[in-house]
From TrEMBL:
Organism encoding this protein: Geomobilimonas luticola
Protein's UniProt name: Uncharacterized protein
Domain of life, source organism: Bacteria
């Protein structure tokens, strides 16, 4: 079951050519999560802001991370803690 979180988080990323962004790990509630797989990515516009969404897994749990390219801010949107 997906659980809505919507909390700011700290994310380590690798920026590649163009708009390529690959999250590597993130901190949430004083715990570090290593990202083992990016299962999906998409982008959307909210007014003037571009939001990049990443569905990622640490091997046990599925998370949705969102990067606001205008505000340069990361949020943990949802968690699927089956």
């Amino acid at each position: 079951m997906m659980q809505l979180i919507e909390e700011h988080i700290r994310v380590a990323v690798i920026f590649g050519p163009g708009d390529r962004i690959r999250p590597v790990w993130f901190d949430w509630r004083r715990r570090k999560y290593e990202i083992r797989q990016v299962t999906s990515r998409w982008e959307e516009r909210q007014g003037a802001a571009t939001l990049f969404h990443f569905a990622v897994s640490d091997g046990a749990t599925l998370f949705e991370l969102t990067y606001n390219a205008t505000a340069h801010a990361w949020r943990l949107a949802t968690v699927d803690a089956q």
